[in-house]
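wait is this the right file?? whatever heres the structure
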């Protein structure tokens, strides 16, 4: 009997070598996975080893060839032996195929395990499930989802999210340029405080001449709050009670570098309450609009707010109250469904310190960790 050992990259390649040299009558005696030699072999895919045997002719010490053109008649004993060997070969081939299927299934289960882990992380951070699937499926095309690759998987997910975020787009103003900014959004999100923070930065840091206008006459506290800030900063404040008073206010501020307009927070579900914001916006030539929303808002309400402000052609996003929210996935959701640029985050009530240029890193790190 002739016995030979074959080593290949996988079971299929090893079987090809066996059949090529020993023929189809060969019997598989043993098979296993083995590590590659050397230190670096530890990190590579294992090799596959098969030990096979073939019955040899005692007269000329040559193996029998099963596919001779004119085979010699076999005795009953030889025929039985041939059938036994063939059955052994078939059994071994079946075992190898099952082993390969189990190995492939194990690999798929491991991939599913790490995939599900990160899907659950997205959901726990309030990322919409459709968005989570989209990001994970993009990542899965780029990298194998195995526990060994987890660091690389996390980095890949971050890169994909950052691509969706794009670059932040804060207020940029050329020298000598006069700009008007309007702040809109639902009630209670902190528009007035956000406006005051930006007014303070532009007045103190950028030494711009600032004019403040408020149409939020529905809350006395809002007027007094903005008046207090204007007195501290030494900037002028004009209160308007009707949209048709806006032109006069703009005329008074014609020598200002920057005009910031605070609108009343309205119930985004009531169409009539949004009319005033529409009228004010229509009276201004090329305004820059900020839609202010809270990071604590649910995704269902975010979609409702975005739909209500659908009359806005162009706007940037400002997210407030990041310090009050336990998860920040909604910011990613909003960015993706609107396609609008994010300008600023606010992180507290202190004026002017608790405002920062929107950082994608802050969001992606909060979702998938450092």
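ok assuming it is, sequence goes like this
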């Amino acid at each position: 009997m002739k016995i030979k050992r074959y080593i290949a990259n996988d079971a299929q390649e090893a079987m090809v070598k066996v059949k090529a040299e020993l023929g189809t009558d060969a019997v598989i005696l043993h098979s296993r996975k083995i590590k590659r030699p050397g230190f670096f072999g530890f990190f590579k895919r294992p090799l596959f080893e098969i030990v096979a045997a073939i019955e040899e002719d005692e007269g000329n010490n040559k193996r029998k060839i099963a596919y001779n053109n004119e085979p010699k008649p076999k005795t009953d004993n030889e025929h039985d032996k041939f059938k036994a060997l063939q059955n052994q070969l078939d059994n071994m081939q079946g075992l190898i195929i099952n082993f390969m299927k189990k190995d492939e299934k194990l690999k798929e289960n491991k991939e599913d395990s790490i995939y599900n882990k990160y899907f659950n992380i997205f959901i726990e951070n309030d990322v919409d499930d459709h968005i989570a699937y989209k990001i994970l499926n993009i990542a899965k095309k780029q990298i194998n989802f195995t526990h060994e690759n987890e660091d690389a998987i996390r980095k890949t997910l971050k890169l994909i999210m950052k691509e969706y975020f794009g670059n932040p787009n804060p207020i940029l103003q050329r020298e000598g340029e006069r700009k008007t900014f309007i702040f809109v959004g639902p009630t209670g999100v902190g528009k007035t405080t956000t406006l005051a923070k930006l007014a303070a930065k532009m007045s103190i840091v950028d030494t711009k001449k600032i004019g403040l206008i408020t149409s939020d006459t529905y809350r006395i506290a809002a007027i007094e709050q903005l008046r207090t800030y204007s007195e501290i900063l030494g900037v002028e404040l004009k209160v308007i009670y009707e949209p048709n008073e806006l032109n006069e206010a703009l005329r008074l501020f014609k020598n200002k570098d920057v005009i910031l307009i605070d609108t009343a927070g309205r119930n985004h579900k009531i169409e009539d309450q949004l009319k005033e914001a529409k009228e004010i916006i229509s009276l201004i030539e090329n305004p820059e609009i900020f839609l202010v929303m809270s990071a604590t808002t649910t995704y269902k309400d975010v979609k409702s707010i975005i739909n209500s402000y659908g009359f806005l052609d162009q706007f940037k996003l400002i997210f407030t109250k990041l310090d009050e929210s336990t998860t920040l996935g909604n910011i990613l959701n909003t960015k993706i469904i609107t396609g609008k640029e994010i300008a600023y985050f606010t992180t507290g009530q202190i004026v002017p310190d608790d405002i920062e240029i929107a950082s994608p890193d802050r969001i992606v790190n909060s979702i998938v960790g450092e």
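The chain has three domains: 2-63+72-103, 108-165, 179-368. so i think its the right one actually
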